Amino acid sequence: MPTQTYLNYGKISQYLAADRISKNMLFQGSDKAPNLSWLIELVRKSIEWKNGLDSSSDSINDTSLYLYDLCGRYIREAKVVLNSGSTGTIINPSTGNQVTIATPFVQFRVGDVGAPMTAGQDTLTLNYAGIINPSIEITLDGTELPYADNNQISYTATYNPTNVQIVFNQAVQNTQLYMIHMVQLVNV
Amino acid sequence: MAFTGTFTVTQTSDITSLVVNDTSSYVGEGQGTFSGRRIYLYKIDTATLVPEGTATAYVDFPFSAGSSITITGVLLTDYSLSVNVVWLSNAPQPGSTYTATEVVTFLNYINDFLYGKVQQLAASPSLLNDTNWQDSMQIMYNEKENAEQATLYDDQFAAQSAIGRAFYLINNENKFF
Question: Fewer CB within 10 Å: N-end or C-end of chain B?
Fold first, then answer.
């Protein structure tokens, strides 16, 4: 592993350790290794100095391994921090799972073969998991429908973990064109 | 365009040496209008450092040397120096500045000592159980940081004082480590 990688781990671990020490001192009044952050900084800066002066020195490998050892439990987090600049990740706050975002789109004309609703029905269940509540938008013949407005045709939606149930306040009729947009979190 | 003398100081792998780089622009006043450059390395007692055998209080930095000069064999210990470069103009112009000064602190001997201790620690991690050893390391490290911080504020005296305190530990290593 290049010396610079050890130094990067050291820089991040130093702050992670300082953060842990601060929290423990505040909430517990003590920490098992109150000097760890300082020690990582001391060793890291000493290696930086030596590496800048004579990068071919044999001793740098030994001291770098010692720095890596000091970073210990923070290495995994440091690796995540280092990689965060290249690709980001999205976390579903409800589940903690890593997800991507999809935008499913459903379009149908009532009465057409294969349409999910037939004339006279008022309920539509869309079997998509992880639809963001609220994200559904529905247009009828190009006009956006309001949500739960009984003065005109409108809809309500119930977001379930594995599907979304849409209920219209009027039964759908033949030749009506419905377009439904939504946003979905898909587990990676 | 008025002339403003500027320079930087760097080091090589030889910790007794320093390199002065002339970063001035000679567009307004060409190098031919100068008779030479001089470098003064002032210690806090206003004495100057020069390589052994130099008869003057300054280091000559002729234009024939190019834009940088390596001064060897002057840093035999750590110093905070006030580095002053003087441009000797044959035709001084109003508004031009022919002298520049920077506080520069050299800490390679302290760093070398600290690195040696880190090597010992890497070989014997149980040294951390020696509270005297750890306390002394913290003091050493703090003094090095003090010297660096003081330099940022151009406080040569504070930087040199921190170096002196660190060297007290180095010179009495048997008592503190």
Answer: N
A&B contacts, CB < 8 Å: 42
Average pLDDT, chain A: 90
With an 8 Å Cβ cutoff, is A43 touching chain B? Answer: yes
The stretch A74-91 carries a mean pLDDT of 76
CB contacts, 8 Å: B118 with chain A:
42-43, 46-47, 63, 66
Give yes or no for B86 touching A (CB within 8 A).
no
Name the pLDDT band for B33 (thresholds 50, 70, 90): very high
How large a percentage of chain A has pLDDT more than 70? 97
Question: Is this structure's pTM higher than 0.90?
Answer: no
The domain total for chain B is 2
How far does A43 lie from chain B, in Å, by closest CA?
A: 6
Q: Burial letters for B73-112: b for 16+ Cβ neighbours within 10 Å, e otherwise? A: ebbeebbbbbbbbbbebeeeeeebebebebbbbbbbbbbb
Last residue of a domain, one of B106, B141, B159: B106
Closest-CA distance of chain B to residue A33, Å: 11
Q: Which of B81, B106, B131 is the last residue of a domain?
A: B106
So what's the pLDDT on residue A87? 59
The answer on B49 and B96 residing in a single domain is yes
* pLDDT value at B170 more than 80: yes
Q: Give the CATH architecture of domain A98-187.
A: Sandwich (2.60)
Give the nearest partner residue to A42 out of B13, B108, B137, using CB atoms: B137
Which residue of chain A comes nearest to B137, CA vs CA? A42
- The residue segments making up the domain with residue B159 are 108-176
Give the residue on A whose Cα is nearest the Cα of B125: A66
Structural domain contains residue B1: no
Q: Do A62 and B137 touch (CB under 8 A)?
A: no
DSSP secondary structure string, B111-132?
A: HHHHHHHHHHHHH-GGGGG-HH
Mark whether B137 and B99 lie in a shared domain.
no
CA distance B32 to B26: 9
- The reply to whether B19 and B59 lie within a common domain is yes
